[in-house]
Structure formats: C-alpha cells, structure tokens
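Long-time lurker. I teach an intro course on protein structure, and each term I like to show students one example going from raw sequence to a predicted 3D structure in token notation. This year I'd like something fresh instead of my usual example. Would anyone be willing to generate the tokens for the chain below so I can use it in lecture? Attribution to the forum is fine with me.
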Amino acid sequence: MEDLSWERIGERVRASRAAAGLSQQALADAVGLERSMVSKLESGDRRIDAVELTRIARAVGVPVSHFPNPLPEVVSRRAAIAGSEEVGDSGAARSAYATEVRLSEWLRAVSAPGDEVRRLRARTPTDAEFRDAVGWKPQPDLSSVLVPPRYSSAVVAALGARAITPARAVETLRGQVSAEQLTGEAAE
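-- Reply from a regular --
Happy to contribute to a lecture. Here you go:
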C-alpha cells in the first residue's frame, strides 16, 4: 500500500487534470487560483485545503475521495470465483474449458482448407473462364480493329509527311481504311 503524501495527491491532481483535458491555467481559472499555485500543488510543494480540493474535484469531474485514497488494484472477476471455491474443480470452469476446446477445434477445422478448395486453388482458370467470371462481354466495334491505334496514328503521320504513298498506307493499315478516305477524295 502506498503512503499518503502531498506528492501523491499532487500526482493524482495532475493525472485528473490531464484526463479532463484541462491545462494548468484552465484549472486555475476554474478553481480561483493562480497557475503557479496549481503547478506547485501538482509537484507537491504546496499543501491543499479541503475547499480547494473540493473545487478541483468538481472542475475535473472526480469525487474528492479520488485524491487522498490509494489507487485501486486491478479488479478481476476470476478473483471473486477463486475466493468462493476452487476454480479448477467447479462445474463452470469445466464447462468453460470444454467450450474453449470445442471452439478451438471448430476454428481449426474451419480455417484449414478442404480438398475441394485446395484443388480449385491449384487449377488456374482459362482466359475464357476468367472473362466469364468477371462478366466480360466482347465489344462488337473492337472486334473489327485490325491494327493498334498507335500504329495507325504513325501511318497517318507518315502519310501526312509524304513519307509513304496512299496505296502503301492502305496496305499497311490492312484494309482498315480505303485510299479515298486517306486522300479525302470521297466518291460522290
């Protein structure tokens, strides 16, 4: 058990102030003290009277008994069970242990992949199966494209620079366009 001292009370005031989200100045304003007095109080250099302690408790939102009383030990539900009877021999403990074992076995079985899952993971789907799975449908306008767009742009640029003839451009574009379309002489 810890000894009660002004330093311990000051530490609890500091922790409570920080937990409440208050600065030393904000606490001093709420209590009616100067900031330096709050600082000295938190360091244990200044003693505090009951009225000031009550105002501080109200400002930080804790009961007055929070400051002088020692901090509680960690409370465990198992400690109450152990005090009443032997934990290992109780029916509740045996039931909890059996439930934990069944749950562990179930989780192990669920997390381990079955034979069908292993077989499906080992087989890579074909391109057609993959496209069907993602809902891919062939686009009719793309099925008629015989040359890539960059390639056709390069051919048209070469034709514009007079590096190739219109007949050669039609030939390299694999009939994608006609000579009339390239030269602008549409048949009327």
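Some talking points for your students: The longest helix spans residues 91-111. Residues 71 and 77 are 18 Å apart (CA to CA).
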